[in-house]
Amino acid sequence: MRAARAAVAVLLFLGTPSACDAAPDAALDGLKIAAGSPGDVYHALGQALAGAAPGVQVLESGGSLDNLRLVAEGGADAGFATVDTVTMATHGDQPFRAARPLVALARLYDDYLQVVVPAGSDIDRVTDLAGRTVSTGPAGSGNAVVAARVLGTEMTTVHLSPADSAEALHAGRIDAFVVTGGLPVPAVQRLSERRPIRLLSLRAEIADIQSQYGEQYQARTIPARTYGVRTEVETLGVANVLVVRPDLPDDKAYQLTKLLFDAKPDLVRAHAEARRLDPRQALATFPVPLHPAASRYYRTHKTFA
């Protein structure tokens, strides 16, 4: 709520909206979006945007960190990332060597942190992972960042994709894996159809993570029956945003923001979590500031009324 009120306050102080009515195909021709690898939600959404505006190009990457590097260094005009990794980039925290100016066009949906183990495993809590082999997601992904923050380092880590992690768990080559994503994550869903699984509760870790990293991580609940798990599971959520450089021309930033909502049916077909894309929520990108043209879009569409 505080983030949303702050965003509203910013919008109220902005100047008169410009028309920004150029045809999206013209304004976005040649625009490049860094969007992860095939099979990722980011990549699916990027492809859906490119399908709605054929001039848009989708670049493959390793995930949030790679997307941010591409945007910051000019290799891409926009990129998908989680707000925790954007904060790392704007502060110049490792693995970034210097602060990178980045702003958001929209909050998209929340990722849920999911720690997956076989149903019959003797691993009941995060501390039981000590000495075990755990896949924390591809190197260069937001998944790996949040996994390291929550789980610590007292385990053997491997960096597998969600699909490869699920296969490795099924084959007994790893003891657990961590995945972040909207519900349900396809790889976890497919695994649950092959064998019973459990999700570890993060109830004991939530307060500590929030005290260290603030509001970018929110307490969330994975509903009962997700993946066949009988009870609710307490976990952490982190928002996904579409980011650009502050110097992206206003017409491009405005039209790309507009495209997100004009193409929403295509995005939902690409991944169900896109149904959560809502202009009234999309402007709440805290702690990442909005591009002025995105702010103008939300104001002209009266999303703060």
UniProtKB/TrEMBL annotation:
**Keywords in alphabetical order:** Signal
Signal peptide as annotated in the record: 1-22
Q: Which branch of life, at top level?
A: Bacteria
Q: Which SUPFAM superfamilies match?
A: Periplasmic binding protein-like II (SSF53850)
Pfam families reported in the protein's UniProt record: NMT1_3
Q: What is this protein called?
A: C4-dicarboxylate ABC transporter substrate-binding protein
Q: Which organism is it from?
A: Phytohabitans aurantiacus
